[in-house]
Amino acid sequence: MRALIPEALVGALLSVAAVPAAAQNWDICADLWLTRGLIQARAGGCFVETDAVALFGNADCHSSAPEFSTQDARKLEIIAAREAELGCGDNDLLALRTMRLDLRFRLDEIPVPKVRPRGCLYWTGDPVYLSTGPEPGSADLGAAQHGDDIFWEHDLPEMPAGWTFVSAYLDGQLLSLGWAEAPIDTSSCGTIVD
Question: pTM of the predicted model, to two decimals?
Answer without folding.
Answer: 0.83
